[in-house]
Fold each of these.
Amino acid sequence: MHWERVAWVRVRGTCADRGDPAGPAPLVTSRHEPPDPAPGPRAAPVHGGVPVPVDDTPWWQRAVFYQIYPRSFADADGDGVGDLAGIRAHLDDLAWLGVDALWISPFFRSPMADFGYDVSDYCDVDPLFGDLAGFDALVADAHRLGLRVIIDWVPNHTSDRHPWFVDAASSQDSAHRDWYVWRDAEPDGSPPNNWVAAFDLTEPAWTFHEPTGQWYLHMFESAQPDLNWDEPAVESAMLDTLRFWLDRGVDGFRADVVHGIGKDPDLPDDPPEVAGIPHCALNDVPVTHERLRTIRTLLDGYPDDRVMVGEVFLMSTDAVATYYGHDDELQLAFNFPPLFAPWLADRWTSCIEDARRALDPRGAWPTWVLANHDNPRHRTRYDRAAARAGEDAATNARRSEARARAAAVLLLTLRGTPFVYQGDELGLEDADVPEDRQVDPGGRDGCRAPYPWDGTTDHGWPTTDGVTTWLPFPPGADSRNHDALADDPESILHLYRRTLTLRRKTPALVLGAMEMLVSPDGTLAYRRVLDGDVCTVLVNFGGEEIDVTALGWVGAEVLLASDDPAPTAGWSGVLGADQAVVLRG
Ligand code: NOJ
């Protein structure tokens, strides 16, 4: 694990005072005509005209989520930073693609020390992104298109400019002092324990606050003080923030470092063998489970299966599994080992087996993530790893998109809920961000580059008065942009769309059991089965074709191939280089 590359890795009651949800204004359409909107919230999904199989499983088990990092998705006001109106203007593109649900990363009021993960008001929209009425309109439009919306919730820490912390830091006797974690210095003046903060691993997870003479805890930046969930008023205030957004109609939350909301009350040193790893990757304390049960009860009190997917940033799938509780804590939890796994068949086999072994006995539903706003995009990661392993530049360039295509088929056909990170459907690579434009304390700018919508010079980000986008565009945006790829049926964008359409038509791929099959080294094979519906997925992780005729699928119907929009009906039995196929049967 390269920790330096693993990114990171109102007072109670007042939320309710915010304005009434505004009625939706007309949807701004972009290049794709939206399907006929069905009336009312949470309409039956109609993406691409293919109905979603409906049964009594909760929607989030059947859904494919699409992560939107709002600063970088689409900009409606020309200030070079994306916003909610920009997202709203492109909802029809997402419905066309065929995803089911959106996770929108933070858009709350924030000084932006961590680009929104430092919240100064949980119940308002930062003016950079719009306002509450704009958010309500976005949710209403999304629901009309059959798209669910979950939002980020940041319960572990606030901004140091949040009124709670401002008060807490005003004196040791302030009303909110105990809402944060304060401790005296050790006798030699050093911090209370050896915990290390994320981002800069030379920094302790503590900052000494001169005016009041104590250290305060922050697992991330010093501008992100950790809340003290042992204080009942904190729990109560944070539950109110959930109610605020649930009452506005969100379908759930992605809970940021949610395993952090319980801390060992003794704040013991991290053991020497892991000292130096950020404490946020180690914190795993029983009381958190109690708190998650309270949160779950709150969510279950709302209709329509409101969901919480927790970011449990622990590198053990067994540990992550415990955060599902016994169907009484998180409904979904991110499991990051696959996100850090190299593009190697045996490593993926282990990840899949680990997830099955840890989650199945609990009846816990897996999630699959290849990329997000905290880590290099998987295409970039796989290319870099191949180069490190000696792949020459020409081969690397040739195989690069093919690997990303095969990974897309894997992501969308494993048993569980997949999360697609914005731009992966374009096969984007990380931007090369020159030093003078780097802005993130965690070194994550590359994967956060603005989404190129078209091939014009501004790529659909029309800025005015010499303003530039907050980050440079990813490589190749002149041709690798949404509109160009939407016009090319052979593109990776169409591969994502085809795979999502196939998933929607194929109950086995959505809810079916998964059986691992024996296959040659360097490949992965699994069967998805639901009642009479059966299909088999084969993935070749290598750059040479592999003859698998001996396995017996010759002549099987090819439902999908990662490298061919119109594969021949009967399968040859030869798995192409860097190819993934889905076969019937
Ligand atoms: C995890 C988020 O994904 C990341 O972007 C953020 O910096 C940390 N949590 C702190 O909130």
Amino acid sequence: MPIATTDPTTGEVLRTYDEMPPDRIDAAIAAADRGFAALRRTPVAQRARWLTAAADLLDAERDDIARVMTTEMGKTYKAARAEAAKCAAACRFYADNAERFLADEPADAAAVGATRAVVRYQPIGPVLAVMPWNFPLWQVIRFAAPALTAGNTGLLKHASNVPQTALWLGELFGRAGFPEGAFTTLLVGSSAVERILTDPRVRAATLTGSEPAGRSIAAIAGRELKKTVLELGGSDPFVVMPSADPDRAAEVATTARCQNNGQSCIAAKRFVVHTDVFDAFTERFVARMAALRVGDPMDERTDVGPLASERGRDEVAAQVRDAVERGARVLCGGEVPDRPGWWYPPTVVTGLTPGMRMWGEEVFGPVAGLYRVSSYDEAVEVANGTSFGLGANAWTSDPEEQERFATDLDAGNVFVNGMTTSYPELPFGGVKNSGYGRELSTLGMREFCNVKTVWVGAGGPSAGAGAHAE
Ligand code: NAP
């Protein structure tokens, strides 16, 4: 894939970039290694101050970087500005809490025959971050803010269609005060990932992206015995039960499906609706989906912009076509408009059956699949019936049912009477083929820490008494 900025509203290539040659990749890894030596010795409070400075830059340059994101991948300008604001907030969250999250945790010294025992959190070294284009700022910041504040350094291989956002990010942390090599953008294609990850100075990798990319990176990291965090795809269910308010559920369902032009891993994609409320929900949902304004992503009134790539748009169109050819029905949308750029309208499809691509695959565009169910058990069975397990939504006003869904849905998060979103305060990640590991919260910061047990004895003749062989 060429490294280039291409305007998704027209398909016009605006700017192309050369891939970094191997000697520059090597120099960047060496700088990340030197940066790590400096950063690990820097007090956490200082790293936190630099992170606050990064938040200030994100706030000050919000409009500019938002415009770049919109130009490169087509999200609406208002969504891009909100993304930049969320990044600044996440930086402040980690800056404010880093000392607490990274403080030694005392353990029961007497129980382990020590005079003192603690758990200490220390950085592990340069981490390779392979990132997607869909939230080109947020995906990177939610890794970098906790990882750098914990004392690691970062090497970013961003998606090839967002090079200008990637270059801006490559400057951000240095401008905020972090030492040279703390965070570097490598303008490389995916074929360079193996070479970078097998370098002994690179200690771990995090990937947010598709399942095939996850498998490939996990295989390399497995061979090299390196830690990975994988945030992969999702086909999140949005269950609507009879006690739910169909108006409110349809309103939130529309946003949950079409946020980010339908290209979000945690977008609700499968709408699993109880038969008692199916018609009421469907009527409202289809009306709302059909009423969304599709158009220029820079226009404040636009709800849905173009998809980010021609390949992505063609894939969505092919998934809908496949469903229709096998007997599904389109209730709104479903036609690729005859205009330049990579547009696809908000679409609702019903009558899905196993064997259709839409039944088991992730649909990365503003296309909703409807599934009619007639009991709680069937709702859970359909909701859990894909290989993914990222997020899940359940709408019900019955407290007992709320608890049951929270337990029974196989997902990294369950939002009851809401839509999945991410917060710096809460862990984020998936199960099954949606990946493993957690980002955000304390857990996200500790993913790239050496969780070190420190045991201190009295040092006298009986030191070590009570210790056992493993
Ligand atoms: P993608 O093709 O996997 O690309 C993501 C990143 O991985 C890009 O930097 C890409 O580089 C790189 N890459 C692709 N194939 C690779 C390989 N074999 N080895 C090493 N690197 C590779 O994903 P996408 O289609 O752009 O992004 C959408 C996917 O990301 C969806 O499945 C979505 O659900 C998922 N996602 C998950 C989360 C989450 O938090 N769980 C969040 C957002 C998105 P190039 O651009 O150079 O190909």
